[in-house]
C-alpha cells in the first residue's frame, strides 16, 4: 500500500522498474531507492476578494537527501495531486544525478487554477503555502523553484515569507527569483535554451541543416516559447505551436517574436490569428524535423508514437511519453533521435544550482558565464548518455535514467543505512 497513486506515479514506477531490471538491482534495494523520503500535505486557507475564505490543498514531496538538499519546482494547477508530485520528485532525482548536481529531487504544488485568482489572492496563497512549508524546507534542506503556474513573482513572495520568519534575507531558499531580489541572469531562459542547445547538437550530428529545418513546439509557456525563439534565431522554421487555448500552424513558418509579444500582453496564444488556427491534438504528428513537447505529462501515447513524423524528439516537458510509447520509440531509434526529458529540460535545474551557489556566496556571475557553464554540463551529460546507450545497446531514456539511478544507488550504499 502507498499514499501515492495515479497514472503519472505509476509511469515513474514502471520506468524505474526497467532501470532496476537493467542494473539487476536486488528486490530488497529497490523500494529504498524509489520511494520518497518525505511527503507533506497541507491546507492553505486564503481570503478571497469577495470576503469569503477558500481552502486549497498543497503538497511537497522530497525524494531523497543523500547527495545534498532536495531541489524542485512548485506548480499551481488544477490537476495537481500527491501522486503526480511524487513522480516529478523522483524524476528530478535522476535528473540531478545525471547532470552531476549535489541534490536530491523534490516537487511541490497546490491544486488550484491560478487564472481564477486575483493578484492579491495569488500572493496570499503563495505566502501561505511557504509559511506552512517552513518547518520542512531550507537552503540546505529543500530549495524551491518555479514550475507550471508559478513564476519569478511567486518565488519572490516565497523568499520574502521565509526571510520574515528567519529575521534576515535568505535569498538562497528559492531559485528562479527576479534578478533584483537575488536571482541569476539567464535563469528564466535556461530550460528553453538548454532544449534548443541539445537540439542543435543533434541536428549537427544528423546533418540536418538549420536553414531548411522545421520544428513543432507543443506548449508555449516559458520553456516552449524560449526553445522556439532559440531555434527560430538559428534559422529553423517553427511551423506550429500550441498552448492550453489552442494551436497555430503555418507551413511557411510562424513569427515567433510576434507570438512572444502577443503572449506577453495577452497571456496566451488566444486571439493571435483565426486563419492560422489548427487542431491542437494534431500538431504532434505533423511532418517536421524537430518536435518539442513542452506542455504536460503523457501526451505521446502509443498511437501518437506510431504516427510521429519527426527526426528529433526533444522532451521539454517532464514525462511527456508513456511507457507504451517508449516501446514503440525503441523500434524507431534509427528514424527518431530521442533527447529524454531528464536531460533535455535539465538546463533549468542546472542554472538553478548556479543561482543557489551565487546566493550562498553572494558572488554573482555574468550571463555569458551562466550560459557557457550550463552548456558545458549539458554537453558532458549528453556525451555520457550516448556512450552508455551504445555500450549497452539500450535507448537514450534507459541510458540517461541508468546513469542517474546508478549515482543515487551508489551514494546510498556508501553512506549506509542509519541507524
Automatic annotation (TrEMBL):
CDD domains: NAD_bind_1_Glu_DH
Keywords tagged on the record: NAD, Nucleotide-binding, Oxidoreductase
Record-linked Pfam families: ELFV_dehydrog (PF00208), ELFV_dehydrog_N (PF02812)
InterPro entries associated with the record: Aminoacid_DH-like_N_sf, Glu/Leu/Phe/Val/Trp_DH, Glu/Leu/Phe/Val/Trp_DH_C, Glu/Leu/Phe/Val/Trp_DH_dimer, Glu/Leu/Phe/Val_DH_AS, Glu_DH, NAD(P)-bd_dom_sf, NAD_bind_Glu_DH
A GO molecular-function annotation: glutamate dehydrogenase (NAD+) activity
Residues the entry annotates as binding substrate: 71, 95, 352
Site residues (Important for catalysis), renumbered to this chain: 147
Protein residues bound to NAD(+): 191, 222
Active site: 107
Keyword Oxidoreductase belongs to the record: yes
GO terms (BP aspect): L-glutamate catabolic process
Classification via Gene3D superfamilies: Leucine Dehydrogenase, chain A, domain 1, NAD(P)-binding Rossmann-like Domain
Record's signal peptide: none
Keyword Oxidoreductase appears in the UniProt entry: yes
Annotated ranges, domain Glutamate/phenylalanine/leucine/valine/L-tryptophan dehydrogenase C-terminal: 184-416
Record family assignment: Belongs to the Glu/Leu/Phe/Val dehydrogenases family.
Protein name as catalogued: Glutamate dehydrogenase
Natural source organism: Nitrobacter winogradskyi (strain ATCC 25391 / DSM 10237 / CIP 104748 / NCIMB 11846 / Nb-255)
